[in-house]
Amino acid sequence: MSKFNRRQFLHTSAGFAGSVAVMSAFGRPAFAQDTAVRHFWWGNPERDKRTFAVIDIYNGKTPGVVVSGETLGFADYFTKLTTQIAGGNMPDVIQQGYGVLFEYIANGAVVPLDDYVGKSLDISKMDQSAIDAGTVGGKFYALSIGANSHMAVFNTRLFEEAGVKPGETFDPFAYTYDELKEFAAAIKEATGVAGTDDNTADYQNFSDFTVQKGANLYNEDGSYGPTQEIVEEYWSTWAGIRDAGGTPPGPESAALAGVAELSQLGVVTGKSAMSYLWSNQLVGVQGLMQDVLGAAVYPNTPAMIPGSVIQPSQFVCLTRDSGNPEAATAYMSAFVNDLDMTAVLGLERGIPSNSEVRAALEPNLSPAEKVSVEFFDRIQGKTAPLTAPPPSGSAEVEQTFERLAVSVLLGERSIPEVATDFLNQAKAILARA
C-alpha cells in the first residue's frame, strides 16, 4: 500500500477522529531519536487502511519513534511469521489469534508483558475478561484488540423476498439445523439463490457443533474431544441441507474449502443468502456488498446448548526479537487506549475491550457497526465458557478436517469412512505435536 493511499485515508477519517477529544490514556514516554518499531498483522484492504492510518497518528504524536507496518493476507501471514521466527528477525509487535497463541508462547516467540504493565503499557481500563484471555500460566502475554464471536450473516433482501422474516418466521438468535434446512431450501426456491453456504468443511462451525453435543474440541489433557458419532452427525446434517437444495452444489463448496478471503463468501459472490464468519468481519463484508446484512448466531441442535464463545478477536503481542520493548509496548498501549487511534480503528477487529473507547465510538458507529454491537448485546449469556487455547498441532488438525471434508462434498467416500480417517489422523497429529 502506498504512502499516498495511507495519508488519503487518514484525511478522510479526520472528521471521525476529530469528533473525539484529543487525548492519550498515558503520558507518552520519551525515546531516543529514530527508535524503530515494526508491527506485523494479517489484514485485508479495509484493515490495512485503518492500521496504516493509526500508525501515522502515533508517529505524529511520538517524536523519536518510527513505527512501520507490515501486512499479509491470512493465508500467507503465519508462513511468513514461521520464517521470521527461524531467522530471528520477527517484528517487535505481531498480531495473534486466540487459537494459535499457546503455540507461540510454548516456542518462546512471544514474551510476557508483566514487566511493562503500569509503565509503558496501560491496561487499567481493559475488561478483566480480556486480560484473563491473554493470561497463560499466570503470565500476561497478549493484549486484546477486540472481542469476537462466531456470527452468521444473511442478505436481508433475499430473506425478505423468500418470506423468511427475522423475529417472526426465523429467530436469528435461536434456530436449529432443521429450521435452517427448511428456510434455506425455501430461499432457493423463491429467489434462485442457495439459502446458505455449505459448512461441511467449516471447522469453526464443527467446533461449535461439538460443544453443542456436550463435548469439547480439545480435552484438558490435550486429546481430541469429538467422537465418531459427532463427526458423522455433523457431516450428515450438512448433507441433509445440501440434499434439500439449501446450499450450492457440493463441488462448488469443495472448491472453497479453506479459503479465507471475505470476497469469496457466498453472500458476497451472490451464491448464497447466508455465510458464516467471525463477528469482527461483518464490517469488512458489508463494505463488499450493496444489500444490507443481518446478523445471527450459528445454527443449533434441538437441545439449544450454546456452542460459540466470546473471545478476543485478535491480540497484539511482544516478540522475543524486539530490540525496543519499551517503545513497542508503548505503541501497543496506544493502539487500545488512544482515542484518536481507536476512532480510526473502529470495530473492524472486534468490539474494543476498553470501556472508554466503546463509549467514545458509540455516537459515530456505521450501520454495520451498530449491527455488530447489537449482536454482542443479544448473545450475552448465550455463549459457552471460554476454554484454554488449543494445544500444539491444532492448526494441522483443522487443515486435515478441511482436506478430508472435500471428499465428503465430492461424494468420493462415505461419511463414516471419512470420519474414521479424520479422527485417526487428528489423534496422530496431537500425539506427535
Describe this structure in words.
Belongs to the bacterial solute-binding protein 1 family. One of its GO terms (cellular component) is periplasmic space. Pfam families: SBP_bac_8. This protein has two domains: 3-148 and 312-379, 3-Layer(aba) Sandwich (D-Maltodextrin-Binding Protein, domain 2); 150-308 and 393-432, Periplasmic binding protein-like II (D-Maltodextrin-Binding Protein, domain 2, 3-Layer(aba) Sandwich), CATH 3.40.190.10. The model is unreliable at 1-26 (pLDDT under 50). The two termini are 37 Å apart. Helix 18 (394-409) packs antiparallel against helix 19. By secondary structure, the chain is of the alpha+beta class. It has helices spanning 3-12, 14-18, 45-61, 74-87, 98-106, 128-133, 156-161, 177-191, 203-212, 228-243, 250-254, 266-269, 282-286, 325-337, 339-345, 355-361, 367-379, 394-409, 415-432, and strands at 35-42, 65-72, 93-96, 135-136, 139-140, 142-144, 147-148, 150-155, 274-278, 293-296, 311-312, 315-318. It is globular. The longest helix is centred in the last third of the chain and has 18 residues, at 415-432.
